[in-house]
Amino acid sequence: MLDSRIINALREVVGKDNVTTDKADLLCYSYDATQQKFMPEVVVHPSTSEQISRIMKLANAEKIPVFPRGAGSGFTGGSLPTGGGMVVTTERMDHILEIDQDNLVAVVEPGVVTEQFQKEVEKVGLFYPPDPASLKFSTLGGNVAECAGGPRCVKYGVTKDYILGLEIVTPTGDIITTGGSTMKGVVGLDLTKLMCGSEGTLGIITKIVIKLLPLPEAKKTMLVLFDSIDGAAQAVSTIVRNKIIPATLEFMDGRTIDCVRQATDLQVPEGARAVLIIEVDGDREFLDKQAQRIAEIIKPLGVVETRIAETPAESEALWQIRRSVSASLRKVNPDKFNEDICVPRSKLPDMIRKIDQIADRHGVPIVNFGHAGDGNIHVNIMIDKKIPGELEKAERAIEEVFKGALELGGTMSGEHGVGIAKAAYIPLELTEETAAYMKKIKKALDPNNILNPGKIFLDN
Amino acid sequence: MLDSRIINALREVVGKDNVTTDKADLLCYSYDATQQKFMPEVVVHPSTSEQISRIMKLANAEKIPVFPRGAGSGFTGGSLPTGGGMVVTTERMDHILEIDQDNLVAVVEPGVVTEQFQKEVEKVGLFYPPDPASLKFSTLGGNVAECAGGPRCVKYGVTKDYILGLEIVTPTGDIITTGGSTMKGVVGLDLTKLMCGSEGTLGIITKIVIKLLPLPEAKKTMLVLFDSIDGAAQAVSTIVRNKIIPATLEFMDGRTIDCVRQATDLQVPEGARAVLIIEVDGDREFLDKQAQRIAEIIKPLGVVETRIAETPAESEALWQIRRSVSASLRKVNPDKFNEDICVPRSKLPDMIRKIDQIADRHGVPIVNFGHAGDGNIHVNIMIDKKIPGELEKAERAIEEVFKGALELGGTMSGEHGVGIAKAAYIPLELTEETAAYMKKIKKALDPNNILNPGKIFLDN
User: Fold this and answer.
1) Per-residue pLDDT tens over the stretch B347-376
2) A418 in B contact zone (CB under 8 Å)
3) Does the keyword Coiled coil apply (chains A, B) (predicted)?
4) What are the tens digits of pLDDT across the range B407-427?
5) Pairing outcome for strands A366-371 and A248-253
6) B312 shares a domain with B252
7) ipTM attached to this prediction
8) How far is B102 from chain A (nearest CA, A)?
9) Can you give the three-state secondary structure of B49-76, one letter per residue?
10) N- or C-end of chain A: fewer Cβ atoms within 10 A?
11) Which of B154, B283, B344 is opposite residue A103, by nearest beta carbon?
């Protein structure tokens, strides 16, 4: 428990009602989607960057670790208060400050929920593509800090590609702006992109300038069932090799189909062992042509059935299948380790084969689905922790999955980040020299190691 | 002149023939497109990253400044050896190592010339969009270091948006890789984007992993003449407000038209005071519809004439007009200060009015053309340095142009960078705190201030 002098100082900064030390309240800020728990000593609810600046200066003076937090929906523990100290939540900073239709730019506070923002811009015919699965509750500040992805990234890129500028509070408490609201800008180092995906270790995001696109006129969704995972994986390569980049190119393996079949009323013909959900978007007339072309070129790859949605309701029904995956997995086993390796997309068949071998070798069920279009697979290792030895098996399997992805020229994480969950595996992916280069940056910017210490292996 | 001991050590690293101290040779590496001259003491031609690593270690041990250089085509002096010392040129590292058609990824050495690379990938139906005006001679390494732009960036983004990973030699001589060849990756800090546009101050780029796109099926070019610059500027906003993002959206003001008319056989009707060159690309059938739609919505804005190219030759003829601009400017006055401010595109009319007022106030001709679609204007202040007082007038005008752009929410540089040319103006754009954050990064990574000292104001 922090000294009452410090609590009082925090109250002076943000007001009495915006500082919490009540245990029940602290508990709410002690976990994220990793289901790990670390109790903070205090939770602070600032509503301006000036308040955050004063908080950071106090934290530096008193050497109290600070853990910035959006919605706490991260999968790797980026927002967990691993060192006690202070959680600074941006949930009160939830205003959309501007949607500029002439320049296709929006300015928001970090606490705005992603889906809410998407709906607002879509009302005026604009489009914010990044669509992490958590979009109903995750915040844009968290999305930027983690560089969130999602199905549409195969065509549209990740969060980083839409961030033009930021206001941040530095680890030592300065308020700075990076980038701006122009489409181009090369004055000084690109701190904006450096902040994206830095997982709250280099600054607290207090304002975000976002680039928008015109909303595509229409979209067309198709669900294709294959007789083998190999066929589906080859279809991904084939589509791209034919110079078509669909808006989404999602896949599910046979085990995922089994789970979904149990959980929903999905009718799947016998012999379907993999699914691709393909969505194309753009000019209405163009879409039919593109969907037909896709159906044609993938036909020889073991297609069992192709369903093309003709109405928005039919499209929604197809997506419902994809969305039901996460919940339905629990039917396999109660505990899930959700990894998100990414490989060059042509290596997808190799990666899936490797994962199958790993699952067999360790006797743990592994369920694969995800963003096949950009080679980003969600590898779900399903165990029951209560059974002795299962956790160790899962851990060995995870390490082998990471090594397998790296052998194929891939990465341990396409969109979830490192946080605390993958920090131990970092030496598999980054050389000591590369890690040292990153650590030097952290140390230079956060000499007291106040901001999110213990994350992404950047400890001073 | 460097000690012969050091010259010998360099010869040992790269071989006798790859170290130059001959004055005539040094002269070739003393200038860039700024037409300023700084003599290096030695020029080194490495061909591997290992050699560059050894060079950097030697430079640190001996405290010799190192100036990496691509083609020396930069407009702000980024490659100029301002502090004597060593020019390290990457011109021998000019191999395209891989074009991976399955994954739409290429790997190149930094010395590959941009246009040559574009032609190679286009042969297999792929597309590398960034198209700086210097593309016939500038190198990809230089493009990454400066984050080069070009006309197509309005739709496709800048160089940074296509760089997935890098191999770099750090200022202290380590060889590190950043990013990778996957479409997504969030392990550790994003050093790849940090390097893009860092103007050779944080590392020497030795390998580049590039994301490619499918080559658009077709394109359609139109040239539209307006009776006022205001009409043309409004047309830009109108097109974007109608949710159309053309591949290019270039403009020229009345003075530019006058120059081009003198230099080429361009036939322009009386009363045409501004030009837009608009190119749309994509599916063939879709293009006609889009071009017609554009013509329709901009018609009320004072359009004098619209020319739509029906063949590639006609398209080429329209582009030839745009390309002849730079050379034809010299007709106005012998000395050119080429700035590249960028404003939110809706502020284009305001910015042009400001520039006209500045030109009138100081009695210097200012010729404007450039990438209207993303608000990036090339502001060319044309003087004759030999006339006393002209240079001072130009300098005052430049500062006012920068201030004007910043007042409108813009930036001093959309694509040329800071280098030495704009370093003095940095306090206009960046606060002391933002600058300090950048300087801390430089100091942490280059403690001896060896790599490109004196650039982008990052002096230790």
Assistant:
1) 998 999 999 999 999 999 999 999 999 999
2) yes
3) no
4) 999 999 999 999 999 999 999
5) antiparallel
6) yes
7) 0.96
8) 5
9) HHHHHHHHHHHHHHCCCEEEECCCCCCC
10) N
11) B344
